[in-house]
């Protein structure tokens, strides 16, 4: 029996396929992310608040739902379902796992389920690379980078910076786990072209010796509290969102991806809002930077705090789906949609 007209097929896209599509295409993914930011800034998205599923018996763990709708040239609806279970690391498996569901905007039917931990890491890293490029325009090109936190996200951010033309004379590494810090440093040495790789004994030493600081931790509350550590005015890619005290935030130029999304859930900017009683310390969004509405001063540290928008995952996921479909490589699940007659 032929497929019901108007009902799309349903495909499952495993992580191996996701990796093959994205591997080495850093500049292409950054352009995708920039386009999604522009569509979002132009108002052609729906990106409601994320929903956090928490567990009384597992307080460090959570699963987050990010529903979204992306307009523009490649419209798609969908949801990312991503878990964070920090205790996984001790068991030798990654902290985060995720799937992404894409829905057809015309019928609402799901088009595909994609393994999404790679998509999530790639869109986060591409966002950081885009921000690093645009937020340092007009400044001297940073030559020293420091990574605080050395997991999957740090590795992807390093790859996306290198893949979009960045090089550094020195790369600093610090992690609360000496084993993880050494492992990341060894990874950087194997990758090459990272200049001198330095293992630091503490956060202050890492921050003071870096022109770009990447926070990619699992911190649930601020642990970097002294604004004096940032008086050399670095760019801070505050990807993990909860590392910096309100005092550090209030002493910086602050750029976020979306103000309403970022200032909630006890992120560092949210705590700064609670302390100051207003949002005046937020200078603007990355969209404002992309459109030239916001110029970045060079006399203060610059902190980019991206909450992470579901529309970014949709943009990357739709791109992967379209490439695999065009190449005839979609793994379609036959008869996934079964009850297609209104009265049986």
Automatic annotation (TrEMBL):
Q: Which domain of life is it from?
A: Bacteria
Matching InterPro entries = NAD(P)-bd_dom_sf, ODC_Mu_crystall, ODC_N, SbnB
Pfam families (alphabetical): OCD_Mu_crystall
The name this protein carries in UniProt is: 2,3-diaminopropionate biosynthesis protein SbnB
Natural source organism: Streptomyces sanglieri
């Amino acid at each position: 029996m032929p497929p019901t007209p108007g009902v799309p097929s349903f495909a499952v896209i495993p992580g191996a396929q996701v990796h093959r599509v994205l591997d080495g295409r850093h500049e292409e993914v950054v352009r995708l992310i920039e386009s999604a930011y522009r569509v979002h800034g132009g108002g052609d998205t729906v990106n409601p608040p994320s929903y956090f599923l928490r567990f009384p018996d597992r307080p460090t763990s959570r699963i987050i739902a990010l529903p979204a709708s992306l307009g523009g040239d490649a419209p798609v609806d969908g949801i990312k379902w991503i878990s964070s279970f920090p205790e996984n690391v001790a068991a030798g498996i990654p902290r985060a796992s995720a799937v992404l569901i894409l829905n057809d905007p015309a019928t609402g039917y799901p088009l595909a389920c994609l393994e999404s931990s790679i998509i999530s890491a790639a869109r986060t890293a591409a966002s950081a690379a885009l921000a690093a490029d645009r937020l340092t325009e007009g400044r001297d090109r940073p030559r020293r980078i420091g990574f605080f936190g050395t997991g999957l996200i740090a590795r992807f951010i390093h790859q996306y910076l290198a893949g979009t033309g960045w090089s550094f004379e020195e790369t600093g590494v610090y992690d609360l786990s000496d084993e993880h810090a050494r492992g990341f440093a060894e990874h950087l040495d194997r990758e090459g072209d990272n200049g001198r790789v330095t293992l630091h004994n503490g956060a202050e030493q890492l921050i003071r010796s870096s022109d770009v600081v990447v926070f990619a931790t699992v911190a649930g509350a601020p642990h970097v509290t002294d604004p004096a550590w940032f008086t050399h005015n670095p760019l801070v890619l505050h990807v993990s969102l909860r590392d910096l005290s309100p005092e550090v935030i209030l002493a910086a130029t602050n750029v976020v991806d979306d103000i309403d999304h970022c200032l909630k859930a006890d992120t560092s900017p949210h705590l700064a809002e609670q302390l100051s009683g207003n949002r005046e310390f937020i200078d603007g969004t990355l969209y404002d930077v992309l459109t030239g509405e916001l110029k970045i001063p060079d006399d203060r540290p610059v902190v980019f705090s991206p909450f992470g928008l579901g529309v970014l995952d949709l943009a990357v996921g739709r791109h992967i789906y379209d490439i695999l479909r065009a190449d005839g490589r979609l793994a379609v699940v036959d008869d996934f949609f079964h009850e297609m007659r209104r009265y049986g």
